[in-house]
Specification:
9 strands; five-stranded mixed barrel; alpha+beta; 14% helix; four-stranded antiparallel beta sheet
């Protein structure tokens, strides 16, 4: 069953994302103003973003504490990314599966410094809750390099 999860929050984070790029970034929380979330573990950006960290994210895609991780970091994916167990389906149709070693475009940072004011397109509460359940301290933005 294909499901999708997104959360609607605020305005674009272009300046914050640009700052992350310059700095080296080369389960179920209720959405704000939306319906109840689905069962899928995908955390997706709250809206489309024209900016994306310019680094490379690599590691094994795993599931822990009801969350998807790449390596030892909570994974956050582009807006409209879907879950079709055991696969993550990106908006362009690309897919990755739990257990695969992945190489995606993106970047990461520590969850401790993540705020909704600093990065409004990131579902901060979901990322923080997943990090706590999975026992990790970091998160990554990850997307196919063509996204």
């Amino acid at each position: 069953m294909r499901t999708s999860r997104s959360v609607r929050l605020g305005w674009a984070a272009d300046l914050t994302v640009a700052a992350m790029v310059v700095a080296g970034c080369g389960e179920n929380a209720a959405p704000v103003g939306g319906s109840a979330p689905d069962d899928g573990p995908v955390i997706a950006l709250t809206r489309e973003s024209s900016k994306w960290p310019a680094g490379i994210v690599t590691g094994r895609l795993t599931q822990s504490g009801g969350c998807l991780l790449i390596g030892r970091s909570v994974a956050a994916f582009p807006f409209d990314t879907e879950w079709d167990a055991p696969a993550v389906i990106f908006p362009g149709g690309e897919r990755i599966e739990v257990g695969e070693h992945v190489r995606l475009g993106g970047g990461g940072a520590g969850v401790a410094g993540l705020t909704a004011d600093g990065l409004p397109v990131m579902p901060v509460a979901e990322v923080r809750a997943c990090a706590q359940r999975a026992g990790v301290a970091d998160y990554v933005w990850a997307a196919p390099t063509g996204s």
